[in-house]
Design a protein that fits this description.
Elements (H helix, E strand, L loop, with lengths): L4 E6 L8 E6 L2 E2 H6 L8 H4 L15 E6 L5 H4 L2 E8 L2 E8 L13 E4 H13 L8
Antiparallel strand pairs: 1-2, 2-3, 4-5, 5-6, 6-7
Length: about 130
């Protein structure tokens, strides 16, 4: 059975620009790993105008930062994952989780059906409501 990805963009606030959140199987991956006060990546970085999102699954594996704790990633590390397309599957693996002073959150390897994954990335790229606030 495949995992299911849903991408949402949080509106900008007083401290940060619009941020991306990743919901996998109904769970907020960023919130689970970086805890209260943490943030996801800026929408402008992961959903850029005029070029493909780095979230797109390609045959070349690449590491993407998906979040950081409130103290910043330079302090305790970033939440990151390796994204790679393997035939009809997009895989997220080899998680790196920020240090939070407690038992680290362990995130599973995720496997998305490539068609559903691509459709969600394309939908998020096209839904640029947050750009008017940037």
């Amino acid at each position: 059975m495949f995992d299911c990805l849903k991408i949402s963009v949080l509106p900008p606030g007083p401290r940060f620009a619009a941020q991306v959140r990743f919901w996998v199987n109904g769970e907020d991956i960023v919130g689970e790993a970086v805890h209260v006060g943490g943030r996801g990546p800026y929408a402008a970085d992961l959903l850029p105008t005029g070029r493909p999102s780095p979230l797109r699954g390609t045959e070349e594996a690449r590491r993407l930062q998906l979040g950081e704790p409130d103290c910043t990633g330079g302090c305790c590390g970033f939440l990151s994952v390796v994204v790679q397309r393997l035939g009809g599957v997009v895989q997220w693996s080899d998680w790196q989780v920020p240090w939070t002073g407690s038992t680290p959150t362990r995130l599973p390897e995720l496997h998305f059906e490539a068609g559903q994954y691509d459709a969600e990335i394309f939908r998020a790229e096209a839904d640029g409501w947050w750009r008017v606030y940037s």
